[in-house]
Amino acid sequence: MSVKRRDVVRYLEQNGFYLKREGKRHSFYVHPDGRAVAVKRHKIFDRISANEVCKEAGLKPIF
After folding, report:
1. Residue 45 burial by CB count (10 A; 0-12/13-18/19+): exposed, middle or buried?
2. 9 in a domain, yes or no?
3. Is the dihedral of CA 55, 60, 3, 18 positive or negative?
4. Cβ of 36: how many Cβ atoms within 10 Å?
5. Beta strands 44-46 and 36-40: pairing type?
6. Is the residue at 63 inside a domain?
7. Which H or E element spans position 38?
8. Could you give the residue ranges of the DSSP H alpha helices within the chain?
9. What pLDDT digit, counting tens, does each position of 7-55 carry?
10. pTM of the prediction?
11. How many domains does the chain have?
12. Domain of 19, in residue numbers
């Protein structure tokens, strides 16, 4: 199963993350409490990669 990048970003933003900056191959999202996560700029993620982004952000993996 594949997950769209915008769904991962939407989940992060719903949980208080915001875009800090754009890197060459990643977008960096941070939370006001100091947590940070890098999201690759692929249009489609596999389910495992999408859940790893959620875990890295300290959120429940939902994909």
Report:
1. buried
2. yes
3. negative
4. 12
5. unpaired
6. no
7. strand 36-40
8. 5-14, 47-57
9. 999 999 999 999 999 999 999 999 999 999 999 999 999 999 999 999 9
10. 0.93
11. 1
12. 2-57
